[in-house]
Amino acid sequence: MGEAVRRSASVGEPQLYVATPTMRGEVLRLAVPLGAVYAAVGQAQRQLLGVGLAALVFGAALSLGLSYAATRPLHKVGRVARAMAAGDLSRRVHARGGDEIGEVANALDTLADELQRRLVQLEGERGEMQALIDSMAEGVLALDREGTVRRANPAACRIFGLTGEVRGTPAPAVSRRPAFLELVRTTLQGAPVPATELAHGQHHLLATAQPLADGGAVLVFLDVSTLRRLQDVRRDFVANASHELKTPLTAIRGYSETLLDPELPPELRRQFTETVQANAERLQRIVDDLLDLSRIESGGWRAEPEPVAVDQVARAAWANFAAAAEEKGVGWEIEGEELPQQVLADPGALHQIFANLFSNALRFTPAGGRITIAARAAAQRAGWTRVEVRDTGAGIPAVHLPRIFERFYRVDPARSREEGGTGLGLAIVRHLVEAHGGSVEAESSLGQGTTIRFVLPTRPTAQPVT
Q1: DSSP conformational letter for 170
Q2: Rounded to whole angstroms, how far apart are CA atoms 306 and 173?
Q3: Which of 214, 320, 375, 456 shows the greatest Cβ crowding within 10 Å of its Cβ?
Q4: What are the backbone dihedrals phi and psi of residue 152, each rounded to the nearest 5 degrees, phi first?
Q5: Cβ contact 123:146 at 8 Å
Q6: Contact by Cβ (8 Å): 204, 225
């Protein structure tokens, strides 16, 4: 068998010649034009190329589709994770598959749900903590490691006079007091500071400080100014009360020792006995006034208001002083003869108010003087009655007027004690009037006399006077 390719001399084209022997010993010879073969081969190649390209495109599309289907959940997981990292916890993957990627996506969704729940919980707790700190009476300052303010509650702003945006305020701008700056310095160095007192303006502060793990500090300030004032008042009260009690006690003791002398003349014995009795009565008045004042201030006494006529109570109170006034030559009158005003007051308290005012007025009004009572509707306060007790005494210097309602305060201590005053009468008047929601004030001119003016309600709906 043989084959050959050569150009045919007859047709002028390349042909494929194939020769093969037969069983009969003959030779079979074939000739095929190569143009047809080339055409068939070209067509076959083109068909194969088309099929190959189609298969390639289909394979690529299928590969891309499968790749997209496989990586889409991963891309979504990535987007959700990046959103979570940026603080957006509302995004979810919502994967449907049960493969490994689906498990990762579901775990990410669960993590986002839990983080969101925890953040809501933390935000609620933070709000509660902030409300608690803001409502504290103590001032709270939180400082960073540089000593600048990170947070200050309203009490701290009030104590230190901070206004506007306080975040970022340096410690020296809060207070330049050395004790405050030393407190800040010590705490920022990591040492806690127990309760220590320091001053800022008019405030007396009890400060504690605690360092924080990040190098900052928390400072807490309790304003004890009121407590200090109360302690001063208590100290002054004890000193004044001791002095007032000591004076009659000293007199009683001295005259009592003298009365023990059996050779004391009868006329002196009687005089000394009367002096002892007078000082004992004065001591009794001081104790009674102290007890009354203590009962009123401690809340042990409550006013029981009822409609009462001012003139009736004033007359009943004056009855106890009428004889002494007549003996001294001091007159007494009700302006206009009658006081038509009724007030809503505790009858016993109103009687004591008048008694204390009459006692003071009679004590400092000279012979020939006059004590006048007046009552009329308050001009600028509907539902209130203004009551006045006026005398024609020596008057009170203006510098003393703001303090005459304080306990044991006397304009002329020596004269007041000689006249038998306790120094508590006007303080009791103020407390009794204020217990009815009213107010009391004094007006005086030297050489012309003093007017004590107080207001009381005439009906239950009257608002307290401030």
Answers
A1: B
A2: 57
A3: 456
A4: -145, 130
A5: no
A6: yes
Which of 117-121, 242-246, 286-290, 347-351 is predicted most confidently? 347-351
443 or 286, higher pLDDT = 443
Q: What per-residue confidence (pLDDT) applies to 217? A: 92
Contact 224, 204 (CB under 8 A): yes
- Give the tokens for residue 216: 């900052």
Token reading at 296: 């009123």
Q: How far is CA 144 from the centre of its chain?
A: 23
Helices within 223-265 (DSSP H only): 225-259
Q: Can you tell me which residue has the tokens 């000394």? A: 272
Q: Residues with Cβ < 8 Å from 101, sequence gap 6 or more?
A: 70, 73, 74, 77, 95
Structural domains in the chain plus CATH codes: 136-223 (3.30.450.20), 230-297 (1.10.287.130), 306-457 (3.30.565.10)
The band of 211, judged by pLDDT with boundaries at 50, 70 and 90, is very high
Q: Which pLDDT score, from 0 to 100, does residue 187 have?
A: 92
What pTM was estimated for this model as a whole? 0.52
CA distance 339 to 320: 20
Separation CA 466–CA 96 (nearest Å): 73
Query: Rounded distance, CA 243 to CA 9, Å?
Result: 160
The tokens describing 335, both together, are 């302006």
Binned at pLDDT 50, 70 and 90, residue 389 comes out as very high
**Separation CA 296–CA 302 (nearest Å):** 8
Q: Which residue has the tokens 């009121």?
A: 226
Tokens of residue 77, six digits:
């997981």
Q: Are strands 370-377 and 331-334 parallel, antiparallel or unpaired?
A: parallel
3-state secondary structure of 409: coil
Burial 120-153 (b: 16+ CB within 10 A, else e): eeeeeeeeeeeeebeeeebbbbbbbeebbbbebb
Check if the beta carbon of residue 367 is closer than 8 Å to that of residue 358. no
Six-digit token string for 427? 């303080």
Give the CA angle between residues 413, 414, 420 to the nearest 5°: 85
